[in-house]
């Protein structure tokens, strides 16, 4: 079972580890501030049988 994933901050390029909430569904989108540069990232999560795909875009 997967319980965390990483994304790359769209502003500073830092790799960020985030917990995954599998109970929130297979498609998740939300905004989170980067813990390094404090800029907002739009986080996109897609979960399927092969695992999780996570990416970020600058908000």
Strand percentage lies at over 45%
Total helix count? 0
Question: Quick one: biggest sheet?
Answer: 3 strands, antiparallel
Kindly report the spatial arrangement of strands forming the biggest sheet: 3-4-5
- Model regions low in confidence, pLDDT < 50 over at least 5 residues: none
Question: What structural class results from the helix and strand content?
Answer: mainly beta
Strand count: 5
Shape: elongated
Please tell me the overall pLDDT: 95
What is the string of SSEs from the N terminus onward?
A: EEEEE
Q: Which oligomeric form is depicted?
A: single chain
Radius of gyration, in Å, reads: 11 Å
Structural domain tally: 1
In angstroms, what separates the terminal alpha carbons?
A: 30 Å
Helix content: under 10%
Q: Please, could you describe this protein's structure?
A:
The chain is mainly beta and 59 residues long. It has one domain (4-58). It is 0% helix and 58% strand. It is built from no helices and five strands. The strands form two sheets. Strands 3-4-5 form a three-stranded antiparallel sheet, with no helix packed on it. Strands 1-2 form a two-stranded antiparallel ribbon. β3 (27-33) and β4 (40-48) form a beta hairpin.
